[in-house]
Write a structure and sequence with these properties.
- It is a single chain.
- This protein is an alpha+beta fold.
- Helix content is about 25%, strand content about 35%.
- It is built from three helices and ten strands.
- It has a five-stranded mixed beta barrel with strand order 1-2-3-8-7.
- The longest helix has 13 residues.
């Protein structure tokens, strides 16, 4: 057998395997998720049955209580969800997936009429910026 004859088949096979790996879709490759959203809580919506969490923020859970400036309890989670639903107001939401969380939900940057919803929530005092 000539020198290198046995290895000749390995190089093309390895190149083919690398080619296959490079075609595995990543969140960045996926198209946008667009549609009418249902608000789950202050940082999670659902579009076409798919749960989507907003990237880069943390909002209170729907049943969470907070204290205001006077230390009175209020339903901050419900307020965040209700204010988000009112802001979206049945307009189409567009989300670009950037990751998946530990529960398998899409983590995305979502906008309505060009407004980043996570940014809007933080600026409205309804969520915290999360690195």
């Amino acid at each position: 057998m000539a020198e290198g004859a046995g290895a000749g088949g390995a190089a093309p096979a390895a190149a083919a395997a690398v080619g296959l790996l490079s075609t595995v879709p990543t969140p960045e490759d996926a198209g946008p998720i667009v549609g009418q959203a249902s608000v789950v809580d202050g940082d999670t919506i659902e579009i076409h049955g798919q749960r989507i969490r907003f990237a880069g923020i943390d909002a209170p859970e729907s049943d969470q209580l907070c204290r205001d400036e006077d230390s009175a309890l209020y339903r901050c989670g419900q307020k965040a969800a209700n204010d988000l639903a009112a802001f979206i107001d049945r307009r189409p939401v567009q989300c670009i997936e950037v990751d998946r969380d530990r529960y398998g939900r899409a983590v995305a940057v979502c906008t309505v009429a060009g407004v980043d919803l996570a940014d809007w929530l933080v600026r409205s005092g309804l969520a915290l910026d999360r690195p």
